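Before going further, learn to read the protein records used in this course. Taken together, the tokens spell out the fold as the letters spell out the chain. A record is reproduced here so that you can trace the correspondence yourselves:

***
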Amino acid sequence: QVQLVESGGGLVQTGGSLRLICTASGRTFSSYAMGWFRQAPGKERELVAQITWNSDIIYYADSVKGRFTISRNNAKNTVYLQMNSLKPEDTAVYYCNRGDFLGYWDWGQGTQVTVSS
């Protein structure tokens, strides 16, 4: 089983930037597509960005396209989410997990991102 730890969230003003980091334990991390997800209060968890195991295919939700960048370092078992031009509607708890839609590892605690207007 892979354990996931997200970090890097915080409180920023509209237009600000944050870099989220997801660190995974386990030797199988590099074999899987990974995704960043978010869940706002009262809403369902949604996928915001996805990256294949070798970074050759990347997907972004329309709501974040052009503002967020997902990347990974398999040698460090780490996935990143660079978030620029943040908007209040980006406020949510952000999680990482498998991005292949064939299953999920146990969810981590997530990292809170709050964007003030």
Observations:
- Strands lie at 4-7, 10-13, 18-24, 34-39, 46-51, 58-60, 68-73, 78-83, 92-98, 111-116.
